[in-house]
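Reopening closed ticket. The problem is back. First fold of the pair:
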Amino acid sequence: MDRVRLAEFLRTRREALQPEDVGLPRGARRRTGGLRREEVAALSGMSTDYYSRIEQRRGPKPSEQMLAALSRGLRLSAEERDHLFRLAGHATPPRAPRGDQVSPGMARILDRLEDTPAQVVTHLGETLRQTPPAVALMGDQTRHTGLARSLHYRWFTDPAERLIHPEDDHPLHDRLFAAGLHDAYTRDGRGSRAAAIVEALLEESPAFAAVWREHPVLGPACPAKRVRHPRLGLLELHCQTLADPDRSQFLQVFTARPGSPTEDRLRELSPIGAART
């Protein structure tokens, strides 16, 4: 716990918040801007003495419940809340999942890639949106429902899903998908969708359980890969990834080395259309 920086952070956020921001009257006798300590305490559901001691660097270590109350009272952003927890010596709390809506920034970029294999996926491997060339390359991955929406889940439970990559590459993908779920489970915690996928796979897939026990760690977010296409043959692709600020969504763009046979074949994806659906 960093008492000095915690106190300074709370003070700066208290002074930056105006009475009008939280529905309080300013009053004619208020001489300075910002909220008073007693106002922050009331908004956070704690005593003025307790809050004052923290800001004066002499209070006890706040519990996670108290920090959550302070975050609400001070109207902190998610990033500010995480910073507050770290200053107080606690792990940052999990964030609520965004859902299936592609972020506006990702959507604008994807709209400009209509002639390129590209897609937006979640940190669980759930495909939210694809360009037509991406559908032609890998099939319509947005059609799945339930746990099967996650590519991580399908990889270990649906034999047809594994046909897209050469068999020699399967051990690499086993580790990549298991590492992705380890990362998601650590981030989202028990009771999350990530936890549900992990629990289902531990019951349904001995192959997943074996790799899971090794605790693989994520490397590149989207490494180079070989894809076997039914009409174009074996494609050697590079994957460039753009992460949204909260790392809940990723834009994947598939390219080929200039002048390579794969680059020539990728140009045929648009005429092929949804051949893999």
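Second fold of the pair, where the issue appears:
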Amino acid sequence: MESIYLDHAATTPVHRQVTEAMMPVYQDVFGNPSSVHQFGRKARKILDEARHTAAQSIHANEKEIVFTSGGTESDNLAIIGSAMANRQKGKHIITTPIEHHATLHAVDYLKTQGFEVSYLPVYEDGRVKAKDLRQIIRDDTILVTVMMVNNETGIIQPIEELSEVIQEHQAYFHSDIVQAYGLFNIDTKQLPIDLMSVSSHKINGPKGTGLLYIREGTVLDSQQFGGEQERKRRAGTENVPAIVGFEKAIQLVKENRSESNEKYKHLKQVFINELTKESIDFDINGSMDHSVPTIVNLSFPNMNVETLLTNFDLAGVAASSGSACTAGSIEPSHVLSAMFGDGEARTTNSIRFSFGLANTEENVAEAANRISQILKRLS
């Protein structure tokens, strides 16, 4: 029985061309990019080329790209780093209750340091509203952090509208774009966001690397202490082979963006159509009109997340109840609780299915068929 992977929002398989790009670096380029001799200069050249590629992908300047260990570190550096560096201007931060835990736990830490945090309300369509930001923002607000695409529901937030509210304000605007990067043409010259977090392993690159875009002029404190790498913003020797893999993954998603989006949109519809054809009772969580083609979050009435995921896995189908960082947790989804209210059945009967490189129309349809049979047996 073929195992079918429908959990690309958790992590993606590394593209073959990414692996091929990394291997020569592992074998031949072992110098430290900070070293001045020829071995170091060779590594530095490769690192600079990757930084150029990353910057071009979001129409940024190379000096605005800081390589990190991934989305979590990027979120922490952006949120804690900017808050600490600007606390003399105020100690008020605005976010949403549906952020990734890398953001939520970062602002929780800031609360222990005397910062005040306000949360934008989230509506049943899975989105926040600019009008609420206008009401909540204050003179002493120094940071607004809202993810571009929610990792559990795939719902796209109104980032442009939110950025307009902040544009003439002192507050920095940070967005975790981990689930959005590669799907959209993000232009930092047009979109006034000061800080953006990206992760390599969500775009078929290697785990353990990512980047933080820091708009020129943005002030933030480093959260690691050591050498002067990454323009003194992120101490530690850069992971050159992984960054080269990340660079190749960036090139691939850029080259194939339009074709891939159409493919994933089709796969998502095939999956929903197959469940409908089998007369499965389900509801889609969030607005389909404001969702990415790679993610759909479905509520199955009178079902239980743990039971469903266990049975799906036994049937060779990999899915998730939400963020991979909380896999195994029996607590209700914090995202769906924010959308529908604490205690609502959807918070404990919903599954996230996410599509990507490992999928074809045939295996998505087969996965839907297996899932349908399980749901019928359990009902």
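Update: turned out to be a display glitch only; the data is intact. Residues 127 and 157 are 6 Å apart (CA to CA). The first strand starts at residue 4 and ends at 5. Please close again.
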